[in-house]
Amino acid sequence: MTKNKLLGELVAETFGTAILVLLGVGAVINVGLAPRMASAAGWNWLTINFGWCFAVVVAVYVVGGVSGGHLNPAVTLAMAVKRDFPWSKVIPFWVAQTIGAFLGAAVLFLVYQDGLVAAGLPNVWTGGPGSVFSQAWWGDTAVRHAVGSYSILTATIAEGVGTAVLLWGILAAFDAKNLGVGANLGPLFVGFAVLAVGISLGGPSGYMINPARDFGPRVFATLIGTKGMFDGIWWLVGPIIGPLAGGLFGIFTYDLCVTKWLPQKADTVVQKEAAS
Fold this sequence. Notes:
Blueprint: H1 3-33, H2 41-67, H3 73-82, H4 90-118, H5 132-138, E1 146-147, E2 150-151, H6 152-173, H7 186-201, H8 211-224, H9 234-257, H10 265-275
Antiparallel strand pairs: 1-2
Helix pairs in contact: 1-2, 1-4, 2-7, 3-4, 3-9, 4-8, 6-7, 6-9, 8-9
């Protein structure tokens, strides 16, 4: 591993995570500020879900060939634990991903500055207590103790399970021994996995499922004057510890329930020859 190669990977992770936040959080802000969408909460939620789906697809396609397109500390940690990703690159990848998320939020502020200032700089940047949609849809008032009508524990479990599903999707998409995804369609399948998480599991917490995606915009929002971004313990427990633990759970369960039972490459060739 040369320094130039590592530098290129870090630049790609920064750029890719910036794109991820630009398009994903952009969907949240667009829904939150656009009067034309304000009348239908269900449509708003689906808009955000599809926004994050395509944000992942675009970001991974853009930088995947350089860095692998982790764009998520939970993915990086899981790959280091179970897929021989070098431990020496874990912290640099985490830093690059967080910087990228911060920069993506900064660009979004330039795009939506007038609307955000007029709205009083609300928390459109993260999920959980105090966020715009937590207040609008779940009546969140106990910012320090609950995520809407869900406890912090429940919402953290949702973050962990959602991240596990994300890992299952990533591992399956790029597993040559499994059915796999052909014709370079892996990033599209990963986007669909994110869509599935949002639609099915996103309610309790807003499905951050990515510590950098939450922490980078959270820091930026604090700097521009959004209040309460680091109140209580949610910011640490839910969107950071939850996804990191969920990513590990996801990769261990995939290997236990799937990898262990997949045929060896030679067996697969024999089966294909027999079928033909």
